[in-house]
Amino acid sequence: MSGITVPILKFGVSYATSTQSIPSLLLLPSAGAGSATFKSHQASTTRHLNGLSLAATSTYLLAYALSPGRRHPYLLWTCLAVGIGASTDVFLSRRSSDAKKRDPSPAGKVEEEDYEDVNGSVRVNGEEVRKSMEGFKLRQAVRAGLSGFAFLLGVVGMWGDGRPVVQ
Fold it and tell me: What letter does residue 98 receive in the DSSP assignment?
């Protein structure tokens, strides 16, 4: 049963993050507060989703390894869908950082983020915070879709295993 529960939990966390948490964070009044809250939320969400991905993958691989006689290929396909969903952060983050490298700031322009206030606190660029929140929101939406697909693969596979064998 945990093989089905974990993808649905991952779907729920990713869906709630992309549709409720990030839009709420975008409404915070200051970029500094939004940035600090977003970094904390992002670290917590990523940590929990990586744990759920590890649990799902290990459950499916263990079920595949311990299955008697006939191997169940849906377990590997579900495991693959979970793994791809877990790697969305890596691939989509790399793509956005590559886009930043290709679009450098004009020469001689000093970024606003490079300035420090007299108090020693660093100013935060609101547009950069918004862009990173929207990128995280997109990654979580993709992850939610892939987790939902993994859940459907698991359900269909278990349903197929339960059918009577016709001879």
Answer: H
